[in-house]
Amino acid sequence: MTSALDLNLLAPAHQTVRRPLHTETTASQALYLPIAPPTLGTRGAVIGRELYSGKAFIYCPFSTFGDGLPGGNVIVMGDTGRGKSSLTKTYTARQIRLGRQVVVLDTKEQKEREEGEWAALGRSLTGKAPVKFTPGGGRDASCINPMDPAIAGKRQIELVRTIVELGLGKPLDEFAGSALRLAIRRARLRSAETGRTPVLADVAAALRDPEETDAAAKRRSLDELLNDGLEVSYVLDRLCGSGDDSTGDLTGMLDGPTSIGVDLDADMIVFDLTKVPSGGVAMTILVAVISVFLEEVWLQPVCECGTGPGEHERTTVDARSGAWELGANPVTGCRRYTQRKRIMVCEEAWHVLGTPQLAALLERFLKFARGLGLSCVFIVHHLSDVDDSPETQAALKMADTVVIYSMKKAEAEDTVARLGLPSWTVEHIMRLRRGIALWKVGEVIYPAVQHLLTEAEQHLCFSSGAMTDLTSSSPELE
Fold this sequence. Notes:
Elements lengths: L24 H7 L13 E6 L5 E4 L1 H4 L9 E4 L6 H13 L4 E6 L2 E2 L4 E2 L2 H8 L4 E2 L20 H16 L5 H20 L6 H9 L3 H6 L4 H19 L27 E5 L8 H18 L15 E5 L4 E4 L15 E5 L3 H4 L2 H6 L1 H5 L1 H4 L1 E7 L9 H8 L3 E4 L4 H11 L5 H6 L5 E6 L2 E8 L3 H7 L17
Parallel strand pairs: 3-12, 3-13, 4-8, 4-11, 7-8, 11-12
Antiparallel strand pairs: 1-2, 1-15, 5-6, 9-10, 13-14, 14-15
Helix pairs in contact: 5-10, 6-7, 6-9, 7-9
């Protein structure tokens, strides 16, 4: 866990620490109507101030959970240059000071820095370079193997099927799906015989070379089973390449053994996807694979003291029923097992929310975020970037906190309609100034929350340097 004193990024600490607040009730009500929403408490990350009341705005889905906030998922939206990325960067950095761990899927490149927007912040916090994915591979490039044993068997089958369906552009029928499952199992067995881990190319080879026993088990002839999976094998060839062909969409990223060099205990892990073509099938597939990889490998139970559940004592809380809970760890001095909280940030999240297959794959990731101690933060420009499929709508409903920056009229009207916000918010959203957003936390609306940055954060979080002269005129927390 990172100590606040270790984070030079946020020094001096007094700029972002929580202070006792003093407000005169009558004065506050005079400035802000008596219907003003209640504060979210004094526990959490400082965001800035609520303009109508003048109160500090402090937010943390983990601290507020259960008190009108059923979950920790967040969606941030608004026009370009209004402050979405700056908010998310400072919010996650301040959450790290509270002991949280953050993973970022960074898809926005800063041309003047020749790296992703989150690279500088990640290095400042951890001293580590981002995990970079580059089409075709190359120096310092990483690769994740969807057939890696670290991904559980059923999830692995779901993941490979999703990869194929995204590449094919349509769902697989029952015959092709059955052939794919058989090929995955056969690829595992054949690779085990040679003492290596299977890759997607082994699945493609197994689809083109089925075995009699597999055909008989499905009451199919060998030729029928071959035809069932032939198209799937061609899709995998196109995505991963074959033989001397290295032009596949996923070559160098998902076609070989896992080479990802990542410290899973780091306070912030940045996956740099800026070299992957935006909007293409490779980006969508890569996000799917990384998300499942994180769920299976990163989201393991661990206490805030850094030890697993098995290293904590069991404490009986009801002798008659035998109910128990995890208590102290004598080695670390921890008094009670407390699940470490984690945050996952998706930049340009329309890759996730705009693809029904991907939204369906991640539905479990979102639905069980509470049990995983996870908060997912999605950043999009507008809801029009995503479709109206049932899978996408289900994902949107799991966002219990919505942050809306300024939008043009058409987008504001669409957003208000899709989220069921009051009609007055349309004009309000259109008139919000840069750095000020409407927050909806649970069912409570905070009309104007101004995000405030420290001087150090301005330089690490500003992402419009190519268009704007960076000055010290932005408001600071004092």
